[in-house]
Structure formats: structure tokens, C-alpha cells
Amino acid sequence: MTGVEHRPGQGRIIILSGPSGVGKGTVLKELLSRNPRIFPSVSATTRKPREGEIDGIHYYFLSKEEFERKIAKGEMLEYACYNGNFYGTPADKVQEKLDAGMDVMLEIEVQGARKVMDSRKDVISIFILPPSREELERRLVGRGTEDAQTIRGRLKTAELEMEQAGLYQYKVVNNTVDQAAAEIEAILSSGGEG
Ligand code: 5GP
């Protein structure tokens, strides 16, 4: 495994991907509570807010036109279309935090992750896997935030995404939140050279 290249004093970009329903959000929350040096990037999206989601905290909720304007102005570090909506990482905050020596966490899907991996060397990439496909389906249905058709679409996408796990430097199985967060912490403190 080749080491992660980043200048002294600079943070690293940590990419966290995994299929919908795998529990990325919960693992990320646990990780952030353990490690104050990680800054979670807030993405922009054109999808509608879910119940309880707040603009500027969970996402920047933009119209398609606003999103396309940001792409045209080169303001996105990466973006992708996922299940019919745009999702992207605003570039300005990421660089600001890296320069301040913080690690920046991007919780993004596979297409966008590939763009970041291809264009930068200061990246640690981690893919979170479910203990099994059956367990993933159970978690997705149990979340209760989507209708049956959306869940079917997400399961299909999940299968395609899991086929791409090999692109990532590390794979972590989310058996429990504590175990997954601890494994990711160990990866980060090894400097991404495990
Ligand atoms: P959700 O709609 O469930 O919040 O997110 C759907 C997918 O979009 C998830 O896999 C999530 O990781 C991904 N995603 C969220 N923000 C971004 C982003 O800024 N860029 C990319 N490429 N994917 C994102």
C-alpha cells in the first residue's frame, strides 16, 4: 500500500462511502465524537430535505439551477448524480480546513469518490460494508424514511456500489457502530499506511 501524500501541517481528505442503509451516518457521528480533528464536510444536494434535516447542517439544499451554477463556476470539488439528484462537495471549506491542519471527512457515493481519488494524493478512502446483504435490506426497510419503490432502487444501487468496494484503500464491516468507528480510528492513526 502506498502512503498518503500530504504536506506537513496539512490535513488529509478522508472519503467514507458505503451503500445506502449501511449506517455511514451513525458511524460518522461516533467517529466525530471521538476525534475533534475531523471536520465533516457539508454537501450540497438537489434532493428534498427529509424530516428533521436542516439546511446548512445536514446538507445545503439547492435547486437544480443553483447547483448547476456552482458546477459552472468550478465551485465543486466533486459532484455526482445519484438516484436522480445532484450531490456535491463545495470546494472552499474543504481547502480551508485542510490548510488549518484538520482532516476533512467526505461522506460521498462512489462516482464522486473516484473523482477525488483520481485527482488528489492526500486521500484516505474507506468503504463501509454491511455484515450481509440481508442485514442491509433489513436496515434499509427499518429506517422507514423511503417508500417501497425508492427502497428497491436503493438496493439495486447498493449492489452496484458494493461491487466497487475494491477501489477503496480500506474496507470496514459495520457489525456494530463501536467496532466500525474503532477500526476507522485505527486506520487514521496509522496514517493511512496500514
Ligand atoms: P442521501 O440522499 O441518503 O442523504 O445520500 C445519498 C448518497 O449520496 C449517499 O451515498 C451519500 O454518501 C451520497 N452523497 C452525499 N453527499 C455527497 C456529495 O457531496 N457528493 C457525492 N458524490 N455523494 C454524496
Please outline what is shown here.
The protein has 194 residues and is α/β, with parallel strands linked by helices. It is built from seven helices and nine strands, in the order βαβββαββαβαβααβα.
Q: Tell me the count of domains.
A: 1
| Average predicted confidence as pLDDT | 92
Described by the principal axes of the CA atoms, the overall outline is globular
Q: Tell me the major beta sheet.
A: 5 strands, parallel
The succession of helices and strands, N to C, reads EHEEEHEEHEHEHHEH
Describe this structure in words.
The protein is α/β, with parallel strands linked by helices. It has helices at 24-34, 64-72, 91-99, 110-119, 133-143, 148-162, 177-189, and strands at residues 13-17, 38-40, 44-45, 60-61, 76-82, 85-90, 103-107, 123-129, 170-173. It has a single domain, classed as 3-Layer(aba) Sandwich (Rossmann fold), CATH 3.40.50. Strand 5 and strand 6 (85-90) form a beta hairpin. Helix 1 (24-34) packs across helix 7 (177-189). The longest helix has 15 residues, at 148-162. The radius of gyration is 16 Å and the shape is globular. The model has no long low-confidence stretch (mean pLDDT 92). The structure holds guanosine-5'-monophosphate (5GP). The site of guanosine-5'-monophosphate has 13 residues, from strand 5 and strand 6.
